[in-house]
Amino acid sequence: MSVKLHYKAKHMLTPFLIICFSFCVLTGMNAAVRATVRVGIYTGAKVYFVHEGYQGLVDGGDHICLATWESVSMMLQLGGTVIGSARCKDFRTKEGRTKAACNLVKLGITNLCVIGGDGSLTGANEFRSEWSELLQILLKAGKITAEEARRSSHLNIVGMVGSIDNDFCGTDMTIGTDSALHRIIEVVDAITTTAQSHQRAFILEVMGRHCGYLALVTALASGADWVFIPEMPPDDGWEDHLCRRLANQRSMGYRLNVIIVAEGAMDRFGKPITCDMVKNLVTKKLGFDTRSTILGHVQRGGTPSAFDRILGSRMGVEAVMALLEATPDTPACVVSLSGNQAIRLPLMECVQVTKDVTKAMAEGKFEEAVKLRGKSFENNWNTYKLLAHVSPAEVKVSGSIMNVGAPCAGMNAAVRSAVRIGILQGHNMLAIHDGFEGLAHGNIEPISWAAVGNWTGQGGSNLGTKRMLPANIMEEISLNIAKFNIHSLIIIGGFEAFVGGLELVTGREKYEELCIPIVVIPATVSNNVPGSDFSIGADTALNTITSTCDRIKQSAAGTKRRVFIIETMGGYCGYLATMAGLAAGADAAYIYEEPFGIHDLEVNVEHLVEKMKTTVKRGLILRNEKCNSNYTTDFIFNLYTEEGKGVFDCRKNVLGHMQQGGTPSPFDRNFGTKMGAKSVLWLTDKLKECYRHGRIFANTPDSACVLGMRKRALVFQPLAELKNNTDFEHRIPKTQWWLKLRPILKILAKYKISLDISEKAAMESVIKKRGIV
């Protein structure tokens, strides 16, 4: 389907309904519910809620009720699920499923959107597979008519995975996982401060009975000393290895030790490894003051993260599209995330691979279990192994690292990872303070393993960062590269890092000292570096904006008839404004990439006037700081104030530099850690390629690259090749993936626009493409 249309004009839809399931309710589901309802209504369908999961489906009556646009308002910031979830023994019986089928047929519902774990989704598929049989039972019993059976001849199923454990194979992240990581990291950060004060060892148990994702990412994001996960039990003799490692850390001056244990952790013989077991071991063998903490259900609650809200919203939209395009022959599918791409996978294939993981663990095939979890899990495990279980190599070359441009959260995590992996790879790591200016002035010093010990959770830039570019100080830079015997260079920063890298490449023609391998790691709240879909720091800034908007919306909801105009950072890049608009439920987001004029402003004001006639009497408008030099924040505020007289009043907030600060989010810590590690491994290989006649000489285009996330993978792209896709005047890439999400923002705000569905997500095979999953 390669057209642009308003779905309502194309499809006369049968109703569909949404059910939320989970053995325990979790945070992030409501965004998916909201998106499914609103996009469903946008397409012209009736959308029903099923309260209390499958039990509500069996009981029928008031448990199945019509959803309205207003009924999903103010849901985004709520944890759990507003439509309830419950275990249901009745649905496991043929009689119970027959009752559920009758309730659906009577309402004319033939499309089912299910949000839950693999058990709930498997139940939905079983329900679908026996649908024809259930209709015949109802027909023979006289509970439905032949016409009703004909109209409901088949049932379409689409699933969205809600699980904080991230234990469903086929998706990089399940709804709720990122929010759970936020809760865990908040606790780890708090415990770290007391552990440092008292020189204690802390053992923390996190959820994950059958999947170690939460434990593994927590270990990476907190810089933990050890992690126990069910997919990869420790080798025999792990007790002595663990104690040696902890003792070694203390001998290097560390005042704390952190050990993360997944609740399903076990040894190679299937014996559980518990917090108390590890605590007793450390206390008895090392005499350390040790404490254990089991986080429990605190991980399931709280406000959803920005990532989970956007994920839920995107999944909800894709789920509706999947139902619209489904035929009686289309297998039940699950909407998944791969990189930054929304994809569809056959539901039962994903369930089968998930079961294969459990089987592999039971058979002791642990390497296979890690691979079956998917590329994202495998990359996390490999990065953890590099940082935690390898001895330093003999020093052979010198690597250097610097921060350039504005500071952002996650920079220090990338530096820590790069320094430690560099030392392990045999690099003498040098810290360059204050960017290119520091490189020119010789502000360079060796940096050790211990020096970066606690950097993962620290915001800002511990190395110091400046915006100065190298073009006018090239000679001084080349002299210091020679003086300090620098063989490679890692530049962590925003658009200045990208431009600075290009200038160094150009300078190679004149200065031979610049002929060294160079890698740029994008790190900026603006997310405007060419060559990468995501930048380190953008997620933290996005969460800051979203949480601020939540408070502002709460204020507006209390006073009623109030519209807030919020200015975000980003330079000319509208990423933050757009994604925060999706996460916070904004009515509009003005950005440079999507030009607007006075007519558009007029339409937005009229839209808010109409909105004030409903039960939702508040408004939220986001404006990117450089979206338009004439339509400033003050201009838009004054315009809305004047045109809204008698209907609503206005307030404005400029968020400013608070968006650059704060402790890094779990995503930015993990992303920075993996980027730092991958950059050093690439440099190590490049140095071997470029070693000629006893010296390093790198002058090919592929010896100076940007390391970036491209759709589903981290890739290295030559700086020179990215020039043609760069708008240097406005400091943005010429193509930006997130612009395709703009229509979703408008549809969810109830604008009557067309939705471009020319790039629909095709069904993929998770079993055939395990390397991608």
Automatic annotation (TrEMBL):
Task: Name the Gene Ontology biological process terms.
Answer: canonical glycolysis; fructose 1,6-bisphosphate metabolic process; fructose 6-phosphate metabolic process
Question: Where does the record place the region N-terminal catalytic PFK domain 1?
Answer: 1-389
Spell out the GO cellular component terms annotated for this protein, sorted alphabetically and separated by semicolons.
Answer: 6-phosphofructokinase complex; membrane
Task: Give the pathway.
Answer: Carbohydrate degradation; glycolysis; D-glyceraldehyde 3-phosphate and glycerone phosphate from D-glucose: step 3/4
Q: Which reaction does it catalyse?
A: beta-D-fructose 6-phosphate + ATP = beta-D-fructose 1,6-bisphosphate + ADP + H(+)
Binding of ATP, residues: 87-88, 117-120
Database matches in PROSITE patterns: PHOSPHOFRUCTOKINASE
Q: Which EC number(s) does the record attach to this protein?
A: 2.7.1.11
**Single annotated GO MF:** identical protein binding
The positions flagged as active site in the entry are 165
Q: Which UniProt keywords apply?
A: Allosteric enzyme, ATP-binding, Cytoplasm, Glycolysis, Kinase, Magnesium, Metal-binding, Nucleotide-binding, Transferase
Uppermost EC category: transferase
According to the UniProt entry, where is the signal peptide?
none
Q: Where does beta-D-fructose 2,6-bisphosphate bind?
A: 467, 524-528, 562, 569-571, 625, 651, 657-660, 731
* Protein task: Catalyzes the phosphorylation of D-fructose 6-phosphate to fructose 1,6-bisphosphate by ATP, the first committing step of glycolysis.
- What is the designated name of this protein? ATP-dependent 6-phosphofructokinase
Q: Which organism is it from?
A: Pygocentrus nattereri
